[in-house]
């Protein structure tokens, strides 16, 4: 899958090309940006924390040195004082000074010149302690800090004489250590960025590869290759569900395409046959039977019958289109379903007598329903015609209408070959035709079941079929009772 794809978008009357990013690149950049942000944040926090940590440690060390020195100093023995201060200063890595109240050095002893350099420091320390009351000043240990150093001051009183202890430590080594740590962190960060480039590229490739595969297969499906199948072994459950949906869509589109082609072939056959006969008999009238009233009447009747068949076929096609498009208005009324069923069954009486069919009726009287009467009669007619068309050699069809607890149940039963189990769910499908040889239904067009399904679904009326191969089929519909009989 490429990083970039071109996509056409219309704007007003024209089209402009918009360059869109591929999923692979988007994921790769997202992972990389996330890694860089984390690394930058870590570097900043790490550098700050290192500097702060070592500064705090130096300040704590300085405070501890001051506390120890203050407790150990003994001004009666200057040599011992000097040794003690040197020992503590070396142990804690600090510089130690002791001022007298006049600003002169007590330690180190030979630092008179340095004392001039510390004049401002002494004045500052003295001013700070002067701000405190005597008792607090004796206990206080003042801390001072700058970017380059930290210092600690304490007051010592011996034989009613005041002295100032001053300790200082430099942050130079801390700053140097922080700078070294920063460079080390930057090197690690660069390495981490390089590693994140590789890892994010690998992850984005792994994540986008299934999508790329699905896209390629979907493109094959869009080109009309209905044999394409979608993988089910992706590590993302969403992609597996999408694969299932696409497989189902592929199967449904393939089936619809096949049924549509079969419908076109069957409808073409239904159109071609009567048209051929109309033309043939018109030529016969013109050339042969024009002056023979008996033959002319017979030939013209054939033309009329075939024209009626064409009219019925066109009408059924229009009915099916309107029902499936939902543009056919429903006119629900309460009517006597029993009487309507007697009337519909009676329309097949002449056909049954001429062809030797036996139509048996078992109909309860005065069963009413609330439905579209015109569509209900069409449903009854189509189902009875379908049963007559596919009944067995005994040419027997049973029509039954019985009252149940919740509905008036209509059944039409034939003794035909039955419907295979794998076709039970598809006989109602749009454009479905049985794999049996195409055969025009008695008095119908071959579109009866599709119209039945659409008409009943529009009214939310339950329907179905039970069948067993070799024993025939039973098509049923449960017509709802009128509103004032719902609880009857």
Could you give a short description of this structure?
56% of the residues lie in helices and 19% in strands. It has 488 residues and is α+β, with helices and mostly antiparallel strands. It folds into 3 domains: 1-215, PAS domain (Beta-Lactamase, 2-Layer Sandwich); 237-318, Orthogonal Bundle (Helix Hairpins); 329-485, Heat Shock Protein 90, CATH 3.30.565.
Main attributes of the structure:
Beta-Lactamase, Helix Hairpins, Heat Shock Protein 90, 56% helix, rod-shaped
Shape: rod-shaped
Q: Which secondary-structure class do the elements indicate?
A: alpha+beta
- Radius of gyration, whole Å: 51 Å
CATH superfamily of the largest domain: PAS domain
Helix content: 55-70%
* Biggest pleated sheet: 5 strands, antiparallel
How many angstroms separate the termini? 66 Å
Strand numbers in spatial order across the main sheet: 4-3-7-6-5
The number of helices is 12
Number of DSSP strands?
A: 14
Q: What amount of the residues lies in strands?
A: 15-25%
Mean pLDDT: 77
Architecture overview:
With 488 residues, the protein is α+β, with helices and mostly antiparallel strands. The chain has three domains: 1-215, 2-Layer Sandwich (Beta-Lactamase), CATH 3.30.450.20; 237-318, Orthogonal Bundle (Helix Hairpins); 329-485, Histidine kinase-like ATPase, C-terminal domain (Heat Shock Protein 90), CATH 3.30.565.10. The chain contains twelve helices and 14 strands. The strands form four sheets. The chain has a five-stranded antiparallel sheet, with helices on both faces. It has a five-stranded mixed sheet with strand order 9-11-12-14-13, covered by helices on one side. The protein has a two-stranded antiparallel ribbon with strand order 1-2. 20% of the residues are buried. Residues 1-15, 111-115 and 435-443 have low confidence and may be disordered.
